[in-house]
Write the structure tokens for this entry.
Amino acid sequence: MKKIKPYINYILIGVLVLIILLQRSCSGDKVVVADPKVEIKYDTVYKHVHDTIQNTVHHTVHDTVKPDGPEYTSGEHIDTCRARFNYLLKQHIVRRVYKDTLKLDSLGTIVVIDTVWLNKLGKRTKIYDYKTPFVTKTVTITKEKEPVRQLYVGGNIFGDKNALQLLTPGVLYKTKKDHIYQANVGVNFDGTLTYGVGAYWKISFKK
């Protein structure tokens, strides 16, 4: 121990120089903040349309076309004329309903109902029953927290199997660049005080 005492000052100076050199070598490091994480999610929502609409159909062409067949002529006898008139009258006053279903792929259907009466197309009914897809886009941006300075307070206890020998309370200071500096005071149980400082640098390994 006596041999070491003369060199304590040189050892301390060497440690301080080493710390200064490490600080200068790391002073150019920039605080690296990870890029924001962007998550894009697409969802498909179906809107159910179920409705019934009636409207009047207007004719655009008016023309007279005489069909073939004896039933569409007047005939030579009165009985024949009456029979053919009754036939045409019956055809004229009968109400006919035409129904057609239009399929919209896998989305649904549209039912079209037309009613013909007195030789006229009456109300047209359309029954809608389908689902319309709506695609929603959700963008979630998660920004990493910027590094912050941190201060820790704690201590160490040293001893052997027989007794406790040293108590060293101290503080740790962590910079934004993940550099850690330590300062502590050692208290021996015989009343002797010791002082210490330390520095730590983060080592990154390539993946």
Observations:
- The longest helix spans residues 8-26.
- The first strand starts at residue 37 and ends at 56.
- The CA atoms of residues 74 and 82 lie 9 Å apart.
